[in-house]
From TrEMBL:
Protein source organism: Ectothiorhodospira mobilis
InterPro entries xref list: Abi-like_C
Domain Abortive infection protein-like C-terminal: 76-160
Lineage of the species this protein comes from: Bacteria, Pseudomonadati, Pseudomonadota, Gammaproteobacteria, Chromatiales
Short name of any one Pfam family annotated for the protein: Abi_C
Name of protein: Abortive infection C-terminus
Length: 240
């Protein structure tokens, strides 16, 4: 008889949601899959990858925003630097909701405690941490799961907030398709083109051949959107 499929496979839901949205992010995919596969039999591997995934997430966000990352920064410092660029409390119209900002900041402060706990347990029980006696007892798997779930929360909060705020503040590095409304705006005025019977999409061609020109036009497009929305709001008109 064929073995029954395992319906209890461990997965990091927030990390998986991000991987589905960005399938080209191979480095963090490798880390997430390694952590998931290590549960529950290799808890030391799990807690080691918890720190690695947090650090990779923060470095990705900072690089997206054109921030130079010091190679000596560890997880607590990386999280601290990353939080500076999340535009907490900004709502869909680009305005700042002070009460929302204060509340979200209180939530985000808890990330520091989570990261501190991940670092402490990783240093004591991680497979990739400091060497230890080969016969030392393994960390119990339920503690590894607690850290993995906490890591998933950290990644989800940081990366989702990062991507959402990028709609109003185009990143120094982003992927083609992240600003589909802008792409449609370009493509409605230019193209389609054909070169050697190969169809070319104007927005993608600009993105691939001159990213800085694409980004400069995108920034102007966003500024004009905000100006139009602001004028409409002053006149009592609904936003598009």
């Amino acid at each position: 008889m064929a073995p029954e499929s395992d319906s209890t496979v461990f997965q990091l839901s927030a990390c998986r949601e991000l991987l589905d949205s960005h399938p080209e992010s191979l480095r963090i995919r490798e880390q997430v899959e390694a952590l998931e596969e290590a549960m529950p039999d290799r808890p030391g591997v799990v807690v080691s990858f918890c720190r690695t995934i947090i650090e990779t997430t923060c470095k990705t966000i900072l690089t997206d925003r054109g921030v130079s990352v010091d190679s000596a920064w560890k997880a607590p410092k990386l999280v601290s630097e990353t939080k500076k660029y999340l535009n907490l409390g900004v709502v869909d119209d680009g305005q700042l909701d002070s009460s929302l900002r204060n509340g979200v900041q209180s939530v985000v402060q808890g990330l520091d405690q989570i990261v501190g706990g991940v670092m402490e347990i990783r240093n004591a029980h991680g497979s990739a941490a400091h060497g230890t006696d080969a016969y030392a007892p393994l960390l119990e798997s339920h503690y590894a799961e607690i850290l993995a779930r906490a890591t998933d929360v950290v990644v989800g909060l940081l990366f989702k907030t990062h991507l959402r705020s990028a709609h109003h503040d185009p990143l120094s590095r982003f992927r083609y398709g992240d600003h589909s409304d802008f792409d449609e705006y370009i493509d409605s005025d230019y193209g389609p083109f054909e070169v050697l019977d190969v169809p070319l999409i104007a927005s993608e061609a600009l993105y691939r051949t001159d990213f800085q020109a694409y980004r400069a036009a995108l920034v102007l497009f966003r500024q004009e959107q905000e100006a139009t929305n602001g004028a409409g709001a002053e006149n009592g008109e609904p936003e598009p």
